[in-house]
Amino acid sequence: MVGYCWGGKIVNLSSQKDTLFKAAASCHPAMVDANDAPGITIPFIMLPSKDEPKDDVEKWQKAVKTKNTVEWFPNQVHGFMAARGDLKDEAVKADYEKAYQMLLNFFHEHM
């Protein structure tokens, strides 16, 4: 499953014990909470932008117990993989393509 913005919170909560999902991704996530991380039971990838709170993401990553990847996109705004992505801007387009390729590779590996 994939969640964008506040959907990232839903993905965290839906990745807990007895989930039906095999792998999860959270793109420019909102409401990142380290308290959600220990209960995650499936492989997880998180792709934060420059607008996500660095401390919250770092605390989450330290608390998660499953295989996980966190890849920052420090030059992109919150929402660059969705409605706020200006694909006419070559730098945005390059990171957008990189991020989606990362998702494809992650899900290919874990499903």
Describe, in plain words, how this protein is organized in 3D.
- The structure is a single chain.
- This protein is of the alpha/beta class.
- It has a single domain, classed as Alpha/Beta hydrolase fold, catalytic domain (Rossmann fold, 3-Layer(aba) Sandwich).
- Helices cover 36% and strands 15% of the residues.
- It has 3 helices and 4 strands; from the N terminus they run βαββαβα.
- It has helices at 6-14, 54-63, 90-110; strands at residues 2-5, 24-29, 44-47, 68-70.
- Strands 1-2-3-4 form a 4-stranded parallel β-sheet.
- It is globular.
- It starts with a strand and ends with a helix.
- The mean pLDDT is 96.
What's the short version?
By secondary structure, the protein is an alpha/beta fold. It is built from three helices and four strands, in the order E-H-E-E-H-E-H. It has one domain: Rossmann fold, CATH 3.40.50.1820.
List the helices and strands and how they pair.
Layout: E1 2-5, H1 6-14, E2 24-29, E3 44-47, H2 54-63, E4 68-70, H3 90-110
Parallel strand pairs: 1-2, 2-3, 3-4
Low-confidence stretches: none
Order of helices and strands: EHEEHEH
Structural class: alpha/beta
Number of domains: 1
Q: Which superfamily, in CATH terms, is the homologous superfamily?
A: Alpha/Beta hydrolase fold, catalytic domain
Specify the number of helices: 3
Looking across the biggest beta sheet, what order are the strands in? Answer: 1-2-3-4
CATH topology term: Rossmann fold
What is the CATH architecture descriptor? 3-Layer(aba) Sandwich
Oligomer: single chain
Largest sheet: 4 strands, parallel
